Amino acid sequence: MNTARPLLIAVSGPDGAGRSSLVRRVAGLLRQRGFAVTTLDCRGCVLCRGSGSPPRVRDEEETVRRPDDPTRRGSWARRTHAVLDAGDLSVRTRATRRALSARSRVRPAIVLTDGGPLDRLVAFGFPPGHRASDRFTRLVRRNDLTLLVETAPATSRGRTGERAAGSPAFRWARYRAWASRLPRVVRLDGERAPSRVADEALERVLDTVRTRRLPDAGEGARPARRKRIVVSIYDDAGNPDYRGGGALVVEKVARRLSDDFDVTVVTAGRRGVSLRRDGIRYICLPVRWAGPRAGQLLFLTLLPFLARRLPHDAWLESFTPPFSTSFLPLFSRAPVVGIDQGRSAEALWRRYHIPFFLVERLGLRCYRHIVVMNEADASAVRRLSPRADVQVIANGVEQRQIDDARIGAGDYILFLGRIDTWVKGLDLLLEAYRRSRPPLPLVLAGSGTQPEERKLAALLAAHPGSVRWVGFAGEECKRDLLRNSAFLVMPSRHETFGLVALEGMSYGKPILHFDLPALRWMRDGGDVAVPPFDVAALGDRMRMLASDERARRALGRQAGHAAQHYTWDEMTGRYLALTRRLVDGSVRGRRPRKDRRGEPWPTTR
Fold this sequence. Notes:
Blueprint: E1 7-12, H1 19-32, E2 36-41, H2 46-51, H3 61-64, H4 76-104, E3 109-114, H5 117-124, H6 131-142, E4 145-150, H7 153-160, H8 168-181, E5 185-189, H9 194-212, E6 228-232, H10 245-257, E7 262-269, E8 273-277, E9 280-286, H11 292-309, E10 314-318, E11 336-340, H12 345-352, H13 356-364, E12 369-372, H14 375-384, E13 389-392, E14 413-416, H15 426-436, E15 442-445, H16 450-462, E16 467-471, H17 475-484, E17 487-490, H18 499-506, E18 511-514, E19 527-530, H19 535-547, H20 549-563, H21 568-583
């Protein structure tokens, strides 16, 4: 029998907020991760389920009466109904938890309820301090988590067609008022796509699981020590010099791995600190004080020493320029996975004529497990390290519903990314824009090191025109820029994947880019490719796309459809399967299969 008490998680909100479908989605996602899950319909007591007419707040006047007004107590029938409802809810949840605990054996268990005591507090409308309210409040406190799906009042009414007394805005005010009084209530934005709501709900549930530290050992046995995984990357979301897509990928992977392992993320900082956030330990090596270039070299130098001191069962290393590798497998007794998100020695050789690639090639031969973002890099790495198990795991993107009316529309051409004039090809972009003079303005969004930003400012001063540089774009600003753009342009001289392109595709935006081998994953996905570094061709295509809304609409639909195949759940699941394979001695020698697109990945999720 499972000695851990199953978690009790209630999903609350109006009937039209997509609550039932959310319960089904989250239950399915949890079962994929090995949880024992039972769903329970808690929409009312036995009387409500039999009659189909649950209690509702009559009108706003009922709550604005004086607290000592006896009419606020409700009729004896309503009070009796509330007592019966609370008792029925308590008995059913207790019985379901006990049954699931007996059935789940050694697996962690979760009970998901469709509705709960928070909904009954709103439905009956008793004031705080009322005896019936206290009963439901105690039931809310028994829940390990309550997810409140928030939608606009008009949305919830329109979905269900309900015409209950009392305005939807009034009922929502009561939901929010009670949510602020009760513990462990988390609000979810129900106006987003159902998949995104389910993903956020899943993250909240997993955070609760990590807090509870559910054991997965049998009765009378001590919980087994969770395997320790270290993920290292120089960049992070708070690094003003880069803030690249690799930091986002590592964050997503670390959160997914933390479901099964104790995860530590090693990154760069101005000071050496260690902190814990969302169940993940973060260690910052004090190297950023040396500047972006010297800081990367210091980071590569310190990693081997840390690998000797930091206990771990597997290490995932995101390659760091200029040498990419740090020869980490020579200093670790555990499996080391090299993640090629920034292998740029060849590009730096072309730029600075310093043979960084010689060290990189030697270092790659030390790795037995390497993850790359695309097939072109996979072929190159297999040539450099023939004995390595090279896996292709692309990046993911948040799935969103695209407004069909906005496909093809837009007010400007957008470049979004790190400001690095040579690598990102900003000099080529500005020259192509100056020559072609498309009918839409060009917006540049991003930040970089101070020398690179000064270089861009000098280029803009030398090419005055309809070009605007907005600087660093936070998440909200980035969403607005993508939503209102006509198409994205990616004039990079070097890329490993192009996460920004995938984000643009998820908004139904075409991507104009040079035909680099690393970007051919976009082929037939709403992209427009021109010969590498051909400024004239780039300008001609820029002018064509800016002038032809019909072409943008057709390409945008292709882009939005293609982006749906790159979900974070699938991509991080591949990292989880790879890590499980490496730390589990019973399947250490098993080789992954290939999917139908030729990308090798483990089939376990």
